[in-house]
Design goal:
Shape: globular
Structural class: alpha+beta
Helix content: 40-55%
Strand content: 5-15%
Radius of gyration: 22 Å
Length: about 350
């Protein structure tokens, strides 16, 4: 079904942003003074700065550059602000927590969510701390994603913030994710596609014949699954978006579509996944050494994981190959190892919601 036919049905069913939950700390209140300073520090009129961007600037420490026990949050590098090393930020977080300094604790924790330590446990600890602020955290992440290029630090964190928001995916974010489904940035578009898949997940028994059984894990998915009571109109719209994403020119978007279709379920999703399990994009993960190369087919890998939940076993075709085997395995396929079309190649994200190379 075409998107234009679904929009009128969807309008009444979109969930509005929720008010702050009782008992949840309020991020806007915590950073009120820093938010008020954001526009003057950037030499902008207050009405020229989006409120979510102002909140993001305050919450990330840009407007006040916190430091605790000699551990600074930010440093200047080539005339731009960047986060300092993760080890110092981790010590700063511990010191701020010990002194019950909520503002500094949040800023350091957010930095470790978006520019994490190699230790996954430290990332989870930081994520738990900032997640106490609920909708305020989501607003700050959205502010980072939408920040203009002329503000300090935030544009460098855009992809990491998108990945973190996928981790916190909620139907309250529906309108925001829909706004990114036609983005010219294939990284952001892939994250919106994955988010729609997470919001489409349901354990509705009426779909049992055409979707995986409830509780069957999705191999590689790091985000805990939560069923959402989406409306029939939303489901139709989401399905249309995911079907279009499955034929997108970017392998990142197609891989996200494979994830999303596997979560949504349905006979059409199953058919699309079988096609995606033959996707031509491959990545050389280990350069030629000793006459062998290691290859991953990122879209096939996700599609195979999705189909496994239906009881359909398809080998994703990757592996370590000799020269002759490599030529056979990749015949008619496309090397996307260095494909940066549609993304900002200077950006990176170490935030992971799926254990795959896209």
């Amino acid at each position: 079904m075409h998107l234009a036919r679904i929009l009128p049905l969807l309008a009444a069913s979109l969930l509005p942003p929720c008010a702050a939950t009782a008992g949840v700390p309020n991020l806007e209140t915590l950073f009120r003074a820093e938010i008020e300073l954001a526009a003057p520090k950037l030499r902008l009129a207050p009405n020229r700065l989006d409120p979510k961007v102002a909140l993001a600037l305050a919450a990330s420490g840009v407007t006040w550059n916190p430091s605790v026990n000699g551990h600074g949050l930010l440093r200047q590098e080539r005339k731009r602000w960047v986060y300092s090393g993760w080890a110092g930020r981790w010590q700063g977080l511990q010191a701020a927590s010990a002194s019950s300094d909520a503002r500094t604790e949040f800023a350091f924790a957010l930095s470790l969510v978006l520019d994490p330590a190699p230790d996954r446990d430290k990332w989870m600890h930081a994520m738990r701390l900032v997640s106490r602020y609920g909708d305020g955290l989501d607003a700050a992440l959205i502010g980072i994603i939408g920040a203009p290029d002329n503000v300090p630090l935030l544009p460098q964190l855009q992809y990491a913030a998108a990945d973190a928001l996928v981790w916190r995916c909620d139907t309250r974010h529906t309108q925001f994710w829909l706004s990114l489904t036609d983005s010219s940035d294939s990284y952001l578009r892939s994250r919106a596609t994955a988010a729609i898949g997470l919001m489409s997940y349901t354990t509705d028994g009426s779909l049992a014949d055409s979707r995986p059984a409830a509780g069957v894990p999705f191999e590689g998915l790091l985000v805990p699954l939560r069923p959402w009571p989406i409306s029939a109109a939303q489901r139709l719209m989401f399905e249309d978006i995911l079907i279009r994403a499955s034929t997108h020119g970017s392998y990142r978007v197609r891989a996200a579509a494979a994830l999303a279709l596997g979560l949504m379920g349905g006979e059409e999703a199953r058919k699309r996944l079988i096609k995606l399990a033959k996707d031509s994009a491959y990545i050389v993960t280990s350069p030629r050494s000793g006459g062998v190369r290691t290859v991953v087919f990122p879209v096939r890998e996700v599609a195979a994981a999705a189909l496994k939940r239906y009881g359909v076993m398809i080998r994703p075709s990757g592996g370590t190959f000799s020269d002759r085997e490599f030529r056979t395995a990749t015949r008619g396929c496309r090397d996307v190892t260095r494909d940066t079309r549609g993304i900002k190649k200077e950006l990176r994200s170490d935030v992971r919601f799926y254990d795959g190379r896209w």
